[in-house]
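Researcher: Before we compare anything, I want clean individual predictions. No alignment, no superposition, just each chain on its own. First chain goes here; please echo the sequence and then give the structure tokens.
Model: Echoing the first chain and its structure:
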Amino acid sequence: MLEHSLHYARAAAQARPFASLDELTRAFAAAVDASGTEQQLALIRAHPDLASKAALAGDLTPESAREQASAGLGHLSAEEFAEFQTLSQAYRASFGLPYVVCVRDHTRAAILAGLRQRLSNTAEQERTEALRQISRIAHWRLSDLVSLHQASLTGEPMTSNEAAPAPTPGVRVRLGTNNYGKADVRLFKVNRDSPRHKVTDVWVRVALEGDFTAAHVSGDNTGLLATDTLRNTVYALAVDGLHGDVEAFGKVLIRHLVAQGPTVRRVRVSFTEHLWQRLSPGGSEHDHAFVRQMPKHTAQVEGDGEQFQVTSGIEELYILKTTDSGWAGFLREEFTTLPDTHDRILATVVSSHWEYEPGEHDYGAVWQRVYKALLSTFTDHYSPSMQATLYRIGEAVLGECPEISRIFFAFPNRHHILYNTERFGITNPNTVFHADAEPYGQIEGWVERV
């Protein structure tokens, strides 16, 4: 139940009988709390790395293998796998522990984002967080066992996301966390309420979560919405339901799909919105001619039809300044070759997303304020490092946007290297550069309210 740590089950068993699954889970947590720091660290170290070579080779406990597979960690792209490896190694180097997270509580993207975020924690914070995640893992595994036991006593099939054992003789399996939906729905809407048209150009992804056990285990599709229906729903509801912010439209979609799908309990809608600016021939804005802009507006809305979690973001915003940046005074050791510089080109492709304080918000207005604060802050100071600029931008955004509780940035360094023309007898007065595509620095972090 707790990875390679049977002694905790023996300790928890001393508290029998248990009136509920929660009591049983608390007994395991109490056994861990009472074991002391060294044993707790041993428990954390007993867990495997996520998306590791051991996972690919099948060298995991059956529980870990099912859980990682349920989150799609066995089907990563080469780029995703490489990033998991890099970040996991950095995590181990920092804490001497594997990165532990309850994958059944998170999407694949959230698992990777959490790994980036938790790298900034202290060792004590990580020990506490890892134990909290292990408690969640134990809760799910105990829930599976209790459901399996109840089914064996009553002969009734399990409900929710637990599936009955597969019919293959001698093999006992169950369905893990799962979802299905429709991806890459390319919605373009023209608002013609006035002669001055407005366009919304957005790619939509819909994912349903619920009780889909029968479809997986016995091929019974009763009660399942077709993914083709999901596509049609996006377009149909956009006629009257998409007026402004895609975040608000996400709530419209979720309420409808939860109401229509008898087996649907929760919906996640992701948006990538391409922004268009009005053309201005002769200096005046045209009413119905546009040019597509570089940054993209991203959003994700998740909920059960009554409560929602909303995240908004910016992607593919390429920004650069030709001076007012340097990188100096950093640690030097035997493999350091980079010289100090106090005047360099600073360039990055911004990837950012943020979480909101509770309540309803004007998401479009918030996005515009984040965008303006990001651009103005990038230009208003000498940057001694991308890290310092990240923090300064985050501070500015939270100052301008009380609706936001915290904001995440990923800043890849797009290096511009002064080209050596001296070998041709030509002086390069800091004007000609090679835009380098080789390995680049990656600076990431959250800025949060205290």
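Researcher: Okay. Second chain, same rules.
Model: Second chain and its structure:
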Amino acid sequence: MKRCIAVLFGGCSDEYEVSLQSAQAVLGAIDRDTYDVCMLGITRQGRWYHYSGPLEAIGADRWREEGRCIPAVLSPDRGTHGVVVLGGQVSRIYIDAAMPVLHGKNGEDGTVQGLLELAGIPVIGCGTLSSALCMDKDRAHRLAAQAGIGVPRSAEVPRGVGETTLRLLGEELGYPLFVKPVNGGSSFGVSKVSEFSRLPGAVEEAFCHDSRVLLEENIPGFEVGCAVMGEGNDLTIGAVDEIELSQGFFDYTEKYNLITSAIHVPARIPAVKAAEVQNTALRLYRTLGCSGFARVDMFLTPEGRIVFNEINTIPGFTAHSRFPGMLMAVGMTFPEIVNRLIAEGLKA
């Protein structure tokens, strides 16, 4: 019998649209001769549906208009071990493993992973604790620093912080600096601030995306990333990539349109330094308890120092995204990446 894989897409997140693009690509790459697929769509409002329509409607955000959606819930009951479809006649779909393709909050932060683990359904990707830790930029940096890995200087800002305190924090970190929601992705709510006059507004904007906000020093140099797959000591690592910026920072527009920036894979750095970046990525992956797959993002300074930025436990997953690109650079195809992740998730 084929094993049934649930793929979750959409979600209550600023990154809803990105999730749809990733999910369509993942669903199109799954080997249907080996696996049955249960497509679970989650609207921006948090409504769950079992979807059975065309894949193209997912990426175009027309999946709710296809007339192929039935309300459904993922049951935490281990006897159910799957999805309860709430149509005219209630039915059950047994799930062997689930792959959340849900970027950002309510999908990448341990919430859905916790539900799946409670239900006894294997998660393809990072588990509850590592997902939550990696989403929390402050705690992730603290753990990395304890492991001896370089991190940016930062300070968490309380809601309603006074102008005097904010001014002192800005002067301590120096300008330019970054203002970031502690929990978030795709650079939503992130601002690069070059002077104090812009700092209060940037902090207010970040609080629109999260209840916690971080001020972080600007690290000179450029960003490098590394894709990691696997569990424990059985890890596969991709080629290092490099983000080349002509201006600003790698915000949402640049990440998904590359208007003034470019991604180089492999990175244009010496082989010895690339190996050091890969080793640092492996250390961070293990330090934060990652499993399945993740993309580790770091900075490389002009002096050659490696500084941790963040770990994306559900990175962008189209054939043109950074995570698959780094693995394709070492000889894997996009379908091979997706189906290997599923096979390893079923064994975990």
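Researcher: What stands out in the second chain?
Model: The mean pLDDT is 93. Additionally, The two ends are 19 Å apart (CA to CA).
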